[in-house]
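Q: Can I see a sequence and its folded structure?
A: Here is a first one.
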Amino acid sequence: MSTVTRPHISPPRLIDWRGPHSATPSQPSRTPRHFIRRRLALAAGLLLAVIAIAAAAVWGMSGSDEIPPATGAAALVPADALAYLNLSIDSGRPVVADARTLAARFPDWPLLETAALNRLRTIVAGSNAAPADFAGAVRPWIGKEAALALISSGASGAIEPLVVLAVARPTRAQAFVRSAGASAAGAYDGARLEAYPTGSELAFVGHYLVAGSATGVRAAIDAAAGRARKLSRDPAYDRAVAGEPADRVLDAYLSATGVHELLATRTRVGGAIGLLLDRPSLQGTAISVSPTATGARVLVHSVLGATAPVRSFTPTLQSVLPSGSTLMLDVDGLDRAAPALLEATATAGIAANVGPLLQRVGTALRSQGVNLRSVLSLFDGETAVALGPGTTPSLVIVARVQHQATAQGELAALEGPVTGMFSASGSGPGQVPELADQDIGGVAVHEIALGPGLQVDYGVWDGLVVVSTSLRLIDDVFAREHSLDGDPGYRATLPDQPGPLSSLVFGDVSRLLALGEQTGLTSGARTRELVPDLSQVHAIGLSSTSGERDTTTELNLQIP
């Protein structure tokens, strides 16, 4: 992975593009708390809009030599910004054109681009007075980067968007602002302010155009002049963005407060991501996106305060799980990872009943004298959870154990309590749990038939504990004729894993979508809207590493 060292960024010099004005400065506005949700929705739209305008500005452009992206916009953003996003629109970087080509693969991209540009136009170019071809009007003067920050207005608790656009041709940018209907709105510490009837303000600061609320524009001017702490000099930001790849086209940053307020307190996918990122020792998280030969790569680097190191391991079970597995999670200590993962998936609206169900099962087993701590210790080492191949969703758990006899005894001791739980609830034909043994290649596999269509099989051999809802899946694990790590999707998204990891995830998106359609999980209106775009992604691979003061996650998407 190539990296780039960020140079020291000097404060931009304030430049008056308009000439002297005698108007008095306008006062920053404050937004009541009941507008916070509306501001969050607007901020999300503006984030997409910055991406859209930048992509439109570089359509069809490319260069010959790869160079790192420009990052100077961070010097105009206050250090306490909740979130910051910077998009490279440098036509001299081939990856910029590659990213645009990749985005065009998704069916909803044209609609998203149009809607986002319309939203951005209200803040950068007024409303109805703005040119119809907004992207075309911006292209002649925009520079190498476009950025968006979300800042808090202070006591009111409102979240304000701040747009920062690099300006390559100041005269054309000035003409654009005037033609869009901006009028003089006073000055702030030597910087001339412009305003639209919509309420947004603008100012030219150095070779950047900043636009947003009165509060946001003034905060940018203060940061640029060194009167307030700027994001580019913030220690947490510097640590988080250190080592970002030079081939990125987009990088984002969320402060610890931003992760909590913008993500962790929400629901659905955003809330799930926030729960996984949010922790007491978090200081900030940087995210970068790069196009690749097979799709895209996303890097997430979180910096922490002093904390206990996370256990690491070298993954091996991908060579044990059968080829064609739909989904895999490989961790060191499933008992420690499971609670956070279950909470995150439930927040995302996926399998929300699994956590409560497992709690009830645990309570029932404890009531029958089962030592759950002893049972869970079987999964204290490397453990993989997977959905097996085929149209019927079958679950398999594979764990490496040091003492096979102990593992065999712990699982055998569970047979009585488990069958007892189900015996109490079934009295009809076929409802009484049954125990049987099956021979697979000389290995005894124990089968517990709990009811029609529900069974649990387990076996212990070669230092492995294998538990599954399908005898065929255990047979596939035992045979090892074709393993997951040989699948093209796995090789494309997880090509090599140097050094110990803290977790490993693989998903065959095409098979997951088919399974979701079969089981009705994709029947919701929101999910159905996403299916055409999700169908463009064939597979995903995620690997995480952890240190004492940081964590790094790499996500690769295969987009054929």
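Q: Show me another, different protein.
A: A second, unrelated one:
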Amino acid sequence: MTEVFLDNSFIGTVQDPKSFVDRLISQRRMGKIASTLNVIYNEALNQVFIEMSKGRAVRPLLVVKDGKPLLTERHIQQLEKNEITWSDLVKQGVIEYLDATEEENALVAFYEGELTSEHTHLEISPMDIVGLCTSLVPLGNYNHSVRLMQGSKNQKHAIGFYVTNYFVRMDMDVNLMHYPQVPLVHTLTHEISNFEKHPAGQNVVVAVMSYDGYNMEDAIILNRGSVDRGLGRSSYYRPVSSEELRYSGGLIDEIGIPDKDVKGYRSERDYRFLEEDGIVFPEAKVAEGDVIIGKASPPRFLSSLDEYNLTSNQKREASTALKHGEEGIVDMILLTENEEGNKLVQVRLRDLKIPEIGDKFTSRHGQKGVIGMIVPEEDVPFSASGMKPDIIFSPHGIPTRMTVAHVLEALAGKVGAMSGRFIDGTIFASEKEADLRKELLSLGFREDGTEVMYSGTTGKQYKARIFIGNMYYLRLKHLVSNKMHSRARGPIQLLTRQPTEGRAKEGGLRLGEMEKDTFVAHGASLLLKERFDSDKLMVPVCENCGMVAIHDARKNKYYCNVCGENVEINTVEMSYAFKLILDEFKSFGVYPKLKLKGKY
């Protein structure tokens, strides 16, 4: 007898497992049982598993019988005339959903021409094996699988035109491209997903060559003229908000320009952009430290009110100002109420982001790189017809990465640009490379996409022909202006006395374990000592008991808590974090004894 399990729970036994499974599948195809039921007979274990649990990934496939799909020409004609729908095909058993379990026993063909009597299913389209974002990568079947996934992910980071009503929205950290375009080489998914309504890139002319070493590794070189004409230009939007909070005792915040007697009053210069209502005016150019929304709050503790006069006006400053490194132009101001009925003020800042050295660009094939140089237009290499590339891409990115589609897209884009049409680059169903080469030849170009080019600086012809074509390039949201960060001295943490962490808090750049190892390897001990004294401290240590002693600054006397005054005490240089861990050991009841030695 064969055991039967439903969702991994034993429900009974059957005598003929194969006919039992076949009967279940035929009843599912007839619509008598749920289409989401999946069943498998495991011969090695002699067990039948039936799956009906929620959350399984299932995918649709065409049913094949005797080497022929059940989907006929008549079905396709009926679908085109809207006489039947997808769900009708599922009910008729022409299409069925398989999960990972049942797919173990299925033999699925890619194309109808590959079908044999052994095949059980046929792909609706070979494109089904990839997801939505991956199917947006053109000519994807020519790429290495890892690059295909990276190209899919890169498209999610691209700056584009995300919604049409962005003007009235208060979204967090949003980038908006100024001149987005639809790709010349597109796929079937671009049409299905209405990509022309939310494009995320631009068609550019790309030359594959080296240029003075400024595009080494993955770096790219941009044409200054293209940048000036709007290549990759975008705006960065960010909201800042403040609300009038209510406190116990009927006290409430007050949005407005704080009075001079308010505790923590800033300088008058900080409030210069505020109007009478305490809110910044639109189109004001604000920078770090400028107050955008003025606010005064009641004292934090009632004890700080005057003992005899509860109506005392000792308020504290609670304005919203721009943090370290922030700047922009006030784009929109929204006055509204939150759920509790408190006044809420939201200010949206806008910042123009023009491509600069360090900004990240990528093609749709995982060939990402940062700008290494922006070359003046007169110095950019040009072709015999006077065409200048917008981007110069390093040839070293192609061989090891095996992104053949990157090269093919440039060729196909060139054909599309010259013939004035879109090229179909759908994965597994794209236009043939041979046809594209023939068409390029008929348009008066070399069939391999290369051209004779001349140096922009000397005017001399290059000895090698340069591969040049049109590609769809994306600008990623990782902008150097949002990441650039440095500091000299600044705020420190209360507990460890080390610099704060993060760009927004004006933090330090961490020199970690591995960075320390590089200095050790170089023998740069003095540099290491200098880097590690962000929390340097001179600590008095008792020579007798090895505990941290005490320095009475008023009497200018040193004494030990354990041994008293008549002992030798020496000051030792250490990091505050080490002194802190000694104190924490003491709290455990561990005795951290320091044994001092002379330096020489």
